[in-house]
Design a protein that fits this description.
Chain A: It comes from Shewanella ulleungensis. The structure holds two protein chains of two kinds. Chain A has three domains: about 25 residues, no CATH class; about 100 residues, Carboxypeptidase-like, regulatory domain (Immunoglobulin-like); about 90 residues, Cupredoxins -  blue copper proteins (Immunoglobulin-like), CATH 2.60.40. Chain A is about 10% helix and about 40% strand. Chain A has two helices and 16 strands. The longest helix of chain A is centred in the N-terminal third of the chain and has 20 residues. Chain A is globular. Chain A starts with a helix and ends in a 23-residue tail after the last strand. The relative contact order of chain A is 0.22. Chain B is mainly beta. Chain B has a single domain, classed as Beta Barrel (Porin). Chain B is about 10% helix and about 50% strand. Chain B is built from three helices and 20 strands. In chain B, strand 15 and strand 16 form a beta hairpin. Chain B is globular and about 65 Å long. Classes of the chains: A mainly beta, B mainly beta.
């Protein structure tokens, strides 16, 4: 549509139109920077969809790391003595709500990485909000129920997602730039649990990334005793 | 002071210093209170003889015949203050017409901080407690999720292997090392258990869910050696399981390896370090030592495998140090348990023995037996369980002839229980 308008404008060489043309060109530049969507397909070593892995894109131009859009609210639930979801990803500077859906107290902690915290969450307590100011991997546990295990990845980019059941993620509004594309999972057997590749994006085709390593088995968040009334003996 | 005393004293000092330092650095917040409990009501029939609870040699807590009982009213009162400190007081009550009672079974203060950066966690408990041995008794008020009657090993713990002590566990959590393996080492130092071993000698292994209350003493089956002219004439009619007679400290160590959610294995050694030359108010001091191993493993098809084995010796002497009771003992069980939706089926087999090595006349402690337990549990509602259980014990015990009972005996028990946890 914009292209057609420009052709018509070019045939009438008046000063007003020239001014209009300049405005349109500027607008065009801005619009083409943000409208393109980019799909990724993540495959494991066997070529099957890698489900529930984090994909985040770091643009080389620092200006592109900032988007004005309101950040998504993230919640980490404790349900049936499990962290749910198992993996959460948020942008640096975002607040995360911890919500206890069980009828018992949990003692949530992170003793390692960029953000260390420890708090008890009683069942009647609505939620606890925690701000994550530094990027990195936050491994969470419960000091009462040792089998509980959850992961939070704090990224310094607005472009992050978790793969669906087909191993796909779609980023809807990418600026044109060179991106470091990072695939991360706490059980990915690579240094820092991540694989990094560089692409110039957006591209018209879906990008396929095949992981170079296998996954460790995901720990079952379940007590060996399978009983609701355990007392920490 | 013996070497072990010095070692244990140092352990206590080190732990107290560590705990003290932590107290200084913590913020004291609001104290939280929490009460949990279990009400276990049973109807049962036993094909046995008079229970060991009423000074007989019957191996169940029920006498021969039918029984209706409040088999456990367990209450556990917890407080928590700050992130790391908590306490637990457990009271149990029994109303069975044989040995009714209500009292404390555990009372302890616990310090359990979150792991350090390197995944090391300190867990310290002080008070009236069980040694960390049982793999069955993990539910409210030391109940077992699997069976109504505990294995013979854990029935013995419930009866007379408890103490006032300090338990220090250091754990290394694998997830901090990118590993699926956790390791822990527990060192326990304790007192107030100087008669541990007496009941194992005098009525042998039992199968029960009865936990001796703090104020209780346990009746001893009349044996000829306890007659006025016998070698055990000085022994009181009841054994006091939680008494301190020699002012010496015993020790127990357990090492545990856990492989993520696949299972865990533990190995431990217990020595109450007692001075057997002492006898006070009819209570002899028993030197009891045993090693134990145990494993809990999740097998294919969601079947839980739980097994423990214990082997040791208990010695009681006269004040000159000559052995009066000198017994080797062993017991082991293998249990398989499978839960599917609200159903759980558990199967347990056991083998146990006591070998009498002394020459005291009229006090034969030999015993050899096997046992089978089949339990079915139905969860009516989240807190409410109906359980059906069958126990059979086939044992040889020559001492039964002292009370005109067959040396070879098969005892059976059928129980239906309503257990409500809250």
């Amino acid at each position: 549509m914009i292209g057609l308008s420009l052709s018509r404008d070019k045939s009438k060489l008046s000063l007003t139109l020239l001014l209009n043309l300049t405005t349109l060109l500027l607008l065009t530049q801005q619009v083409t920077q943000t409208v393109s969507a980019q799909e990724f397909l993540i495959l494991n070593q066997q070529g099957q969809a890698a489900v529930n892995v984090v994909v985040y894109l770091q643009p080389s131009n620092a200006e592109n790391r900032i988007v004005a859009a309101e950040s998504v609210k993230a919640e980490v639930h404790q349900k049936d003595k499990q962290f749910s979801p198992y993996i959460t990803v948020v942008q640096k500077g975002q607040e995360v709500a911890f919500v206890n859906e069980d009828d018992i107290t949990h003692h949530i902690y992170s003793a390692l990485g960029p953000k260390r915290f420890s708090f008890k969450l009683r069942h009647e307590q609505a939620k606890q909000l925690i701000m994550f100011e530094t990027a990195g991997h936050v491994s969470m546990g419960c000091n009462i129920h040792d089998w509980m295990s959850g992961h939070l990845l704090v990224v310094d980019t607005p472009f992050y997602a978790i793969t669906d059941n087909q191993g796909k993620v779609i980023f809807n509004a990418l600026p044109e730039d060179d991106f470091s594309v990072v695939v991360w999972h706490p059980q990915l057997k690579l240094k820092d649990n991540q694989q990094l590749q560089t692409f110039h994006l957006p591209s018209e085709q879906s990008k396929v990334i095949t992981l170079d390593a296998e996954f460790d088995s995901i720990p079952k968040q379940q007590s060996l005793d399978e009983f609701e009334f355990l007392e920490g003996y | 002071m013996t070497v072990i005393d010095r070692f244990v004293s140092r352990c206590i000092c080190l732990s107290l210093v560590t705990v003290h330092l932590s107290v200084q650095s913590m913020e004291w917040g609001e104290i939280e209170h929490h009460v949990s409990g279990v009400v276990d009501t049973r109807i049962g029939y036993a094909d046995s003889s008079d229970s060991y609870l009423s000074a007989g040699l019957g191996k169940f807590s029920a006498n021969n015949g039918s029984q209706f009982a409040l088999s456990q009213l367990g209450l556990s009162y917890h407080t928590q203050w700050g992130d790391a400190w908590s306490s637990r007081i457990v009271a149990n009550g029994y109303l069975d017409g044989i040995n009714n009672g209500i009292g404390l079974t555990e009372a302890l203060v616990r310090y359990r901080d979150i792991p350090s950066e390197s995944g090391i966690r300190l867990d310290v408990e002080f008070g009236l407690m069980y040694p960390k041995i049982s793999l069955e008794n993990v539910a409210t008020a030391w109940a077992s999720p699997y069976s109504l009657s505990y294995s013979t090993i854990n029935s013995w713990l419930a009866e007379e292997v408890r103490h006032i002590g300090l338990s220090t566990t250091i754990e290394s959590l694998g997830k901090y090392r990118q590993s699926a393996h956790d390791f822990s080492l527990t060192a326990e130092a304790f007192m107030f258990n100087d008669t541990t071993g007496a009941m194992l000698a005098w009525h042998g292994w039992t199968q029960t869910s009865r936990q001796t209350l703090l104020q209780e003493t346990i009746p001893i089956t009349a044996i000829p050696a306890m007659q006025p002219d016998g070698m055990l004439a000085e022994q009181a009619a009841n054994s006091d399981p939680f008494t301190e007679l020699d002012d010496r400290i015993g020790a127990h160590v357990v090492a545990k390896w856990a492989w993520r959610s696949n299972g865990n294995v533990q190995v431990g050694y217990y020595d109450n370090n007692a001075n057997t030359l002492i006898v006070k108010q009819g209570q002899y001091v028993w030197l009891t030592k045993f090693g134990h191993v145990g494993a809990k493993w999740l097998l294919p098809y969601g079947v839980s495998f739980i097994s423990q084995y214990m082997q040791g010796n208990t010695l009681m002497t006269n004040t000159d140090g000559l052995p009066v009771v000198d017994n080797d003992f062993h017991s082991g069980y293998i249990m398989l348990s499978k839960r599917f939706t609200q159903h759980r089926v558990s199967l347990r087999v056991e083998d146990f023995s006591v070998t009498d090595k002394d020459v005291t006349p009229d006090d034969n402690n030999n015993e050899d037996g096997q046992s089978l337990t089949v339990a079915y549990q139905y969860q009516l509602d989240k807190p409410w369980f109906i359980q059906l259980e069958y126990n059979v014990i086939d044992s040889t015990r020559p001492a039964r002839r002292y009370i005109n009972q067959p040396i070879e005996l098969v005892e059976q028990q059928w129980q239906v229980s309503s257990r409500y946890f809250f």
